[in-house]
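Example record for the data management plan.
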Amino acid sequence: MPHDIINGHVGHIGHNHDHPDHLHSHMPDADKANELLVLTTQFIDGFVAAKDKMSYLRIAGVPLEIDDPSGGPKMKLVDVQLTTEWQVGTASPSFGSRELSYLPYPGDMVSERTNMGFVYVSMDAKHTTDIRSFLQKHSAAQELRA
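Corresponding structural encoding:
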């Protein structure tokens, strides 16, 4: 098993624990974000390519109805949204000014992002669940079962 030497002490990378209530490795946040990006991309690509979209959603465990977050009647899945955005620059607060510091990207730095949302409705409300939220909850539920 690989080891890190930190301040003269040898430690295990990923630090598995021998505690009976803690037998799993921890994934660094950057790795979790990268894994979520890969899962999201693969999920969207699979959905777009699927001949039977409803079967794809069922196999993936996407619920066809959910509880209304505000306590109303059950909400039904009616739409799957795909949105594409291109990041063409960045803006951040400027020091000592209310004006944003803006950095437009040169052509080769412009990046495309596609996102997916599951749209649920009831007689009283509409709720959209982002694919990243769904995959994070789905992944966390699987970790608990493991």
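Summary line stored alongside the record: The first strand starts at residue 3 and ends at 6.
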